[in-house]
Each structure stands twice: as C-alpha cells, then as structure tokens.
UniProtKB/TrEMBL annotation, chain A:
Provenance organism: Rhodomicrobium udaipurense
Compartments in which it is found: Cell membrane
InterPro entries according to UniProt: ABC_transp_permease, BCAA_transport_permease
One GO BP annotation of this record: amino acid transport
Name by which UniProt lists this protein: Branched-chain amino acid ABC transporter permease
Keyword Transmembrane in annotation: yes
A Pfam family that the UniProt record links to this protein: BPD_transp_2
Membrane-spanning parts: 12-35, 64-83, 95-113, 140-160, 188-211, 223-250, 257-277
Gene Ontology annotations for the cellular component aspect, listed alphabetically: plasma membrane
From TrEMBL, chain B:
Highest taxon of the lineage: Bacteria
Gene Ontology biological-process annotations: amino acid transport
Protein name: ABC transporter substrate-binding protein
UniProt keywords, alphabetically: Amino-acid transport, Signal, Transport
Pfam families to which the protein is assigned, alphabetical: Peripla_BP_6 (PF13458)
Family per record: Belongs to the leucine-binding protein family.
Annotated PANTHER family: LEUCINE-SPECIFIC-BINDING PROTEIN (PTHR30483), PERIPLASMIC BINDING PROTEIN OF ABC TRANSPORTER FOR NATURAL AMINO ACIDS (PTHR30483:SF6)
Keyword Nucleus: no
UniProt domain Leucine-binding protein: residue ranges: 33-372
Amino acid sequence: MSLVLVQILNGLQYGLLLFLAASGLTLVFGILGVINLAHGSFYMLGAYLAVTLTAQFGDIFVALAVGIPLAFVFGAAIEWLFIRHLYKRDHLQQVLLTFALILVFKEVQQTLWGNHPLSIPTPSYLSSSISLTPDLGYPVYRFALMGICVALALAMMFVIQRTRVGRLIRAAESNPEMVEALGYDSRILYRMVFAAGVALAAAAGILAAPIESAYPGIGDRVLIISFVIVVIGGIGSIRGAFLGALLIGLADAFGKVFVPEFSSVLIYAVMALILVVRPSGLFGRA
Amino acid sequence: MINRRRLLILAGAAGASSIAAPFIRPSWAQANTLKIGLLLPSSGTYAPLGVAITRAMELYAKQQGGKLAGRDIVFVKVDDASEPAKATENTTKLISGEKVDVLVGTVHSGVAMAMAKMAREDGLPTLIPNAGVDAMTRGGCAPNIFRTSFGNGQVGDATGQAMLKAGIKRAVTVTWKYAAGEEMVAGFKKAFIAGGGEIVKDITLPFPDVEFQSILAEVGSLKPDAVYSFFAGGGALKFIKDYAGAKLNEKIQLWGPGFLTDGIEKAAGPAGDGVKTTLHYVESLDNPENKKFSQDFMAEYNVAPDVYAVQGWDAMQLLRIGLEAVGGDTKKRPEMFAAMRNASFDSPRGPFKLGTSHNPIQNFYLRELRGGENRLLGLAAERLAGDTTGCKMT
C-alpha cells in the first residue's frame, strides 16, 4: 500500500516538472503556430546556465532569478533573427529551421561546457531528505520543486485568464488581424510570447538541474515528452498541459513498477487512448 | 541569388571532393611505411574516450622512435562519431581507400560490430581498444580480431564474485534495457547465482530514461542487501544522486561495473561516497608499468591516463609483439596472429594475455568511490577469462 502512495507522490512530482517544460511549448505552438523542435535545447541551455550561474552565485534560486531574464532576452533575439520568418510558412520549414537550431545549440554546449556530466549543487537548506517509509527517503528539494511548479502553473493561468496581457494573447491566438486592427502590434506580442516560451523552458531546466544534473542530450527526452503532453492537453491550453503532464507523470511512475514490460510504451498508449476519445486533446478546440 | 541548379552543382562538388580526399596519397608515404588505421570517435559523446586511446597509442609510437619492427608507422585517422549508420562507410575508407595494414577501433559496440564484419571478410590485423560487446569474442570471434579491453559479461562476472566475497546474499539489478546493460547484468547474474547468491528482481528502464524515483521506491520496498546497477554518463550521475537522495545508500550498498562512476567521480560529490565498482584498471595501481605509464602520459598531455588510455597502450604493445614476430611483414598473417594470440606482457593494468577467443584474461580490481576518487580496495577477481561460448576460430 505504501508503495502505491509513494508512486502517487512520484508521479505528481514528475508530472509537475514535466508541466513546467511543456507549458512553454504549448504557448508557442498554440499561439504562434510554430513547431519548435528547439524547445528541448532551451531546456538544456537552462540546465547548463544553472551550472555557470550557481558556480558564480552559489544558490540555485539566485541562478533562477538571473537566468530567467537572460533566457527571455535570448528568446526574443532568436525570435527576431529566425522564428518571425516562419509564421506564414508551412510546418516543414519550421521543423527544418528549429532542427538546425538543435544542432547549433548542441555544438555550443559541447564547446562551452564539454561532454562530461556536470553536477549542480542543491541549496544546503533544502539538501536533506524526509523519511517517507522506514526504507525510503524523499529529498526536500523535490517537495520545494512541487510547490514552485504549482505556484507557476497558477500564475500562468491567472495571467492568461484574468489579465489584459492574457486577453491580448488569447485574442491574437484566435484572430491576429483583428488585434492589429485594434492598434496592437502583433509582432511585438508574438516576440514576447516566444521569449516567454524560451524563458519557461530555461526555468524548467534551471529548477530541475540540481536533481537532473546537466549532460549532453538532456533536452532530447524533454522535447519528445513535452510534445506528447501538448497533444494530450490540447494545443495551446495551459490547463490541458497541466492535466496532461500529471497524467503522464502518474502513468510513468505506476507503469515502471507495476507493468515494467510496457513502461516504455505506456505514455504513448495513454496519448493514443485520449486522442481516440478526444481527437483535439483534453482542452483543445475542435 | 543562387538558384537551385547552381546549389546542386556546388553541393555535388563538395560531396565529391570529400569522397576523393582519402584516395589522394601523399607523396612521402613510402612503401615501407606501416599504415595503422584508427577508427575512433573524435566527435560526439564518446570523443573523450577516442582521444584518450589515440593519445596513448601516439605516445607509445613516439617512445619507439616512430617505428615498430623496423618500419616507420603512420596513423590514418577517421572519426567514426560513434554512429553505427556510418560505420561501414568509415571502415571502407580505411580498408579499401587508405589500404591500411592494421585496423584499430573502436569505442561504440554497434560501430565495432559493423567494423568487425568487414575486418573478418578482409582478414587484416584488427585490434579493438574498447567496445565490450560480448559477441565480439563469443560467436563473432575471428583469428584476425583481437580485443585489448574487456567483455561486458566479463566485467559483470567480476562484480558478482566481489559481491559474494563481501558477504552479499540478495541483490536487485537495475539497468537500461539495451545491449551493454543487459550483457553486464547477465554476466553478473551468472557469477552471483553460481556462488549461491539470490537475485530478488531484475529492474530495467527504457534507454535513455533517467526518471528513477519510482524504481527507487520499489528497491526500497524489496530490501535487498545490495543493488547491482549499470548506467553511464549523465544517467549514472543522476542515478547515484537520486539513490542517495532516497537514503537508500544508508542501508543498501550500491555496486556496479567501473563505468558506473567513470568520469563523474567529482560530480557525484558526497552522494557517490561508498559506491563500489570493479574494473580492470585503477589509476593508483602499484606496479612499475603503471607508474612509468602514468608519469609519461602526464608529462606528455598534462592529464592522468584513464582505463581507455591503457587499452590503447596495450593495443600497441600487442601489435608490436605481432609485428616483431614477422619482421614487420603484415602479409605473413598466420605467423603474426599466432604471436599475438600467445603474447604475454605486463600492462599498466597488471599481467596481460589473451584467452582462446582473443579477449584479455586479466585482473579485476575492487574500487570504492570516496571523496571524488575511486580508491583501490583490492582484487575483485584474479586473471579472469571472458566467456567464450560459441567461438569457433576458423
């Protein structure tokens, strides 16, 4: 019984972390209509940024506070240089360009940080473990991470649903011409949304770094699973991404222990099942 | 503005020149020069391993005055990038294009298998300085293929013996579901069960999944004496840290092959303290060859040698013995291979000789990670031979 409870906790914790990574992707995909394969690379850059920034400032939360604005500016620059030329083009060209970005970022990572896995220190005040059962401890940092992810999810939903910026974003998603006609520059809006997506991916990479470490290829896995979550949740839906991420987290945690033979396909089976029932995802518009 | 046709012509020209390049022979390459083809990664994840092997081989050549058995040697390098899809093409460059006299490669087992297939057909002297895939010195063995590293199952075997000696009775295995992990676990289980140990459960994760929390909870509930696990690189680092984070390291010892802690000794930090591994080399081995090798390597490259460098070094030692037996004439293959098969020499890792399937019979050492370095605890298995099941030398 205790194993089941522990797995629920594991599933929720993994799911919340996945949400953080997938939320930026669903924003960019849903609002800009751009398939951004480089999303995993921004996650990776976040993890490596955490290496450099914690070496400089010591604490992962200071690294986060410095890293998010950096990632935002970087994201805006990438949008201005490359992504803005893709809005009117088909998905194949988007895939080609963002795939090229993956290769470039990979080389940059190898040149700057090398091939060996790097460790990022957990803040000392969060580095202990709580005993869940007599045989198993749970790192305090993981609990803290869960709290941060929930707070971020609520904040995002608040911004999108209740604020003027959120209304603009939703309006631009459904009818960009009308937003322009009302006197808003949708180019700036799009740039901000893309930059926010990059900042979210980097924030996920930074926050996960103390438990994930930083190593080559860390973004690849995140990319694929993020797409699964975006599709399950419905493209562009933050709420959908949140539920989808929790679902995948739980499926993964239980699958590994109770049906290990199928654990590698289980999350895709979940995705297929949901698409059969709701072809446009949990919260997607048909 | 470049139109499509012009672009195609340019692309074609670029492609043709890169294909032609290996066939252009430098005029200084004399007939007497011995060409050693190096199929090793100098880019990609395994680049550091390829570099270590190459450096040791070049150091050996330098110390021999650039000659083996009286012939000047020249290394011809091809970067295999550890990509199996390009393995055949890259091997062809060396065998047919460069017409090398000796082939050395590689790190990645998938690339090595494709390379070995061509080497078997051609019959040229071939040395493998890393790839541990079991089939290479089992069903896939050949008279012209020699391995100077290890077999995956052999490393697992050594760990199984060491765990039994440490009084461990019940073990859980945890690894990725892919060839190297499964072969090491299979070797471990065979030795561990044969010695009276009990395997409580085999846990596998899809490669390269690194979400370990749920399986750690399971390990905790199974309460074994120890866990035998194999992961590599970032996965290994995360596993060791998560294992300590779940407080499992307080009650359940973590064991594995040396590759579990390879390259992440410092990064693991306190979480790595107490992880026990076995390998055929430890930096601190106390023998004259290792002392000299470490000093020379350090003097040349300003870094300490690792197990991969030792494997490259021994490839050169073995090659030299083969060449000297035939006066440098690589056309006298049967004589050369016989000399290599029967070779016995002192390696930095300890005494080195080959088994019947051309896999090293060697010592395995028990090491414990503590304070960011692997410390030598003693012998895990002495002069351990690899499994030769299915090997027919013809």
